[in-house]
Write a structure and sequence with these properties.
The protein is an alpha+beta fold. It is 30% helix and 33% strand. It contains four helices and six strands, in the order ααβββββααβ.
Length: 148
């Protein structure tokens, strides 16, 4: 993986830099690693980063996909295919939590490989625990006002 996309957004470039910094660890856990710049919208100004990680060559391999938007919103999809459909799947989305950085997101993606490769019972529950402290949901913007 030598071609890394360049974005017009500082946050997405930080995400790509985190992938570069963790590339050795990622390569030890995943056979296939691909990061792409995906243009959304008619104007082509809105771009997101798509990271695809696959455990092996097989199309049935464990696959973890991350979509990252400029506003720090992250969508995670992990699954394993079989001849008869999905053996399991996991989906989560949320905004990168305060105090967290893109390296934390990459570490979560690495941990996903370890959970499902080891065949951990309740894998989706364990995956949810991994992402719970890194991705948050809820309103963005003005902080809640506290009555005194």
């Amino acid at each position: 993986m030598n071609n890394y996309p360049i974005f017009d957004n500082h946050s997405l470039n930080d995400f790509v830099s985190s992938i570069k910094a963790r590339s050795k660890s990622l390569k030890s856990k995943y056979y296939y690693i691909n990061i792409e710049k995906v243009i959304e919208g008619v104007e082509g100004f809105d771009a997101k980063a798509e990271l695809t990680l696959r455990k092996s060559r097989s199309h049935k391999s464990i696959t973890v996909r991350l979509n990252v938007w400029p506003d720090r919103w992250v969508w995670v999809d992990a699954r394993e295919a079989s001849d008869k459909g999905w053996l399991w799947s996991f989906n989560e989305e949320g905004r990168l939590a305060g105090g967290k950085n893109w390296s934390d997101v990459i570490r979560c993606a690495e941990a996903m490989a370890e959970i499902f490769t080891a065949g951990v019972d309740n894998g989706a529950k364990k995956a949810g625990e991994i992402w719970r402290k890194t991705l948050v949901k809820g309103p963005v913007g003005e902080a809640r006002k506290v009555r005194l």
